[in-house]
Amino acid sequence: MTALRVTVWNEGVHETTQPDIAAIYPNGIHGAIAEGLREVLGDDVVARTATLADPEHGLSEEVLADTDVLLWWGHIAHDQVSDEVVERVRQHVLGGMGLIVLHSGHFSKIFIRMLGTTCSLRWRNPEGGERELVWTVNPTHPIAEGVEQPIVIEAQEMYGEFFDIPTPDDLVFISSFTGGEVFRSGVTFTRGRGRIFYFSPGDQEYPVYFHPQVRRVLANGVRWAAPSPGPRQAPAVSNPQPVGSGSPA
Amino acid sequence: MTALRVTVWNEGVHETTQPDIAAIYPNGIHGAIAEGLREVLGDDVVARTATLADPEHGLSEEVLADTDVLLWWGHIAHDQVSDEVVERVRQHVLGGMGLIVLHSGHFSKIFIRMLGTTCSLRWRNPEGGERELVWTVNPTHPIAEGVEQPIVIEAQEMYGEFFDIPTPDDLVFISSFTGGEVFRSGVTFTRGRGRIFYFSPGDQEYPVYFHPQVRRVLANGVRWAAPSPGPRQAPAVSNPQPVGSGSPA
Amino acid sequence: MTALRVTVWNEGVHETTQPDIAAIYPNGIHGAIAEGLREVLGDDVVARTATLADPEHGLSEEVLADTDVLLWWGHIAHDQVSDEVVERVRQHVLGGMGLIVLHSGHFSKIFIRMLGTTCSLRWRNPEGGERELVWTVNPTHPIAEGVEQPIVIEAQEMYGEFFDIPTPDDLVFISSFTGGEVFRSGVTFTRGRGRIFYFSPGDQEYPVYFHPQVRRVLANGVRWAAPSPGPRQAPAVSNPQPVGSGSPA
Amino acid sequence: MTALRVTVWNEGVHETTQPDIAAIYPNGIHGAIAEGLREVLGDDVVARTATLADPEHGLSEEVLADTDVLLWWGHIAHDQVSDEVVERVRQHVLGGMGLIVLHSGHFSKIFIRMLGTTCSLRWRNPEGGERELVWTVNPTHPIAEGVEQPIVIEAQEMYGEFFDIPTPDDLVFISSFTGGEVFRSGVTFTRGRGRIFYFSPGDQEYPVYFHPQVRRVLANGVRWAAPSPGPRQAPAVSNPQPVGSGSPA
């Protein structure tokens, strides 16, 4: 098996402007995620990172063409992501690149563009956060393989329903929070030839991406979202002759 | 509009053998449910009741043929329901009769027979119960119409995931409980020509079926599960000629 | 019941520039569709029409606010629809307005914007067209109520798979064509609070919108896509206190 | 990777009683299927076979416990399969064993028992059969990997809609036939911890199981249906303490 080529994208603003968050994520949120993937997947993965501040946000045509699965973390700078890059990412997803959108990425341009809805939700972040329990409701799904029932995250921002997304292809995880809310915290979609996984745990104020079970989920997600063999190519219109008509289809 | 013909079935064992439960449901669980439907639907519904102790459990061919939607509550006497009646009910569901299965009815013969899985789950019933919050995750679904976000049920038995059911057609409600569990508490299925709705709130120890919002959900469920026009007829095998072949299809 | 307020939108270019098509649809494609809805739904519908050439394409804020269900037919002028109007329509759909997209509308801006995919497909239109058979695969769905199995459309443009759409909420119809292709010709989606129905029969070169069964499907679709009671309001982010915390939620 | 342990079950009646069919399938339908799996999967599979005439139909507890994926072909002897064996197979599927049901197996006891519906359909088998085209409608699904669009099967029995099954988890293939019918010919379900794939091509009168593309689909299906790691264990009811309550969960 060839190693999976992963790019972890992070806007990277909190860590460079807020010392308290830099203390939690000294290598950035992207760094912590990439380390987690290497920890779980070992030689099966080659993980690079990219951030908003990089030229073309680090998401040039070359980088995307060399990426099997792209992870996306953003929060306070969604608007600063260029529409051109968003459309480039979308074309790669339609052509087969996997996309994993994390936590506050629910409001990213790329997520809203792929799904078409507002992607709005209910949230709350009291001092110290709330305990999140992540329950598996689809135990045969590859993304749930080897995951504890439930995952216990001691401190997290609360995300609650109604989460305005299209009906997912697969509902893998549902979370509850101390305050009583529930959230569809692990959901999958297919768009064009690309697989999309949204996973909500992971706020910048809490060390969620160091949690071994969260790392397991993201590693499973990367395996699941990896493209099928074949060229990176979005579905396209065609005007064929009937099958068996003698003319080339 | 002709009134919907509803039959509320209850095993009716708790209320006749346990005075504390009879005190909560003096007219039986079936009585409370039927009253709730009349309260919400008024002249749009004609609700009768039937119990395990009735001849043929009150579910003769005649009664089922005269029923648009059957509600099912059972708990400690699932085994006493005759296989013949279960198969009769199944045939009516396949032919178009709506079926609403309630709470501990998840372990009824008819539910397991229609779904094929174990229908097992996680449960807990501490002294005084736990608070259940019922969250709508599909606000455009007819069963969620006019329902508060969330429904607050002060005391309930806890039901938690993993709930071993097939992937539902529609996931309408997800509940959380004081102890942190989550549960897909409102789910729909189609089997043959029949619509099935499972709704989990409603333990015999708590007056859940008097809750106005629970009554609203059940009334919406009855409307939703009502059959399309046409004869009560399960899909059947056929051996037709091709369309337009001149022979009768 | 209050009458359903329907707006039938058509780009209206073929009928005004090609006499052969004007001969098939003397009142325009929009006119034929609106007549069909009136024929089936009678006083239950008030149908108006709008076209590309109208100011704001006939889709002002006032018109949309007064529309329960919008039908959309377009083909050669998708690019001429203003982005501002598309976004306005999208907001109304997210807020609850029903949307029915027809035939070549699969490539309309609004459909692609709501679904996120390329919406590409396979097509062929030989002289005289191909026979399309529309098969119901979900007989309990409200959109299939009273519809013949199959609908026989003697002449149509062929649309075939792969049709690049997200997995639909409900698959209602599958078509076959003389040349052997198949197509998911009747599919539903929910986006925000709005219901979307795509139905593929209906090319400008064939009198499909006069077909009684096609008219039945569109009338069923209008009933199904009509909004639930309540204000026209897209889901929005909120930051509530926990339930029962004493503070307003 | 350990080799997948596959058991191909066939009632094996046609081949032993009808010389014309024995001539098509000299090693039995089960033999042809097993050969196809070995051809495509090589050392990744160990395929054994079993038939109705074997003791316990060749499906003892020992055999099933040693089986990752069971393929099922039956037609005229469904009634002769013992209920005890059917329930044994069901328990293994609920516990994680993959199940692939083929063609006329739609009317097998195990398929109906897992799905709950009548599994009825429309069929026709004119002299020489009809051409079946199998179209992929979910190109990212693992079962569609490397499969031609469409698969052309020159002669087959026709199976048409309405096919009375629950809404599948995934719709992978739709077939058309010379007579114009369509059929959801490749569908997946999850029941308990087990994955189920139904694939309709494969009548005893035609050499369908020698078709390279059909063999590809079945090999893909075996890979997809293989269990996740872990013990063979159906979901079961549990009565845990709350998470973090200090008592064992």
From TrEMBL, chains A, B, C, D:
The lineage of its organism: Bacteria, Bacillati, Actinomycetota, Actinomycetes, Micrococcales. InterPro entries: Class_I_gatase-like, ThuA-like, Trehalose_catabolism_ThuA_prok. Gene3D superfamilies: 3.40.50.880. Residues 227-249 are annotated as: Disordered. Residues 5-225 form the ThuA-like domain. It comes from the Bacteria. It comes from Leifsonia williamsii. Residues 236-249 have a biased composition (Polar residues). This is ThuA domain-containing protein.
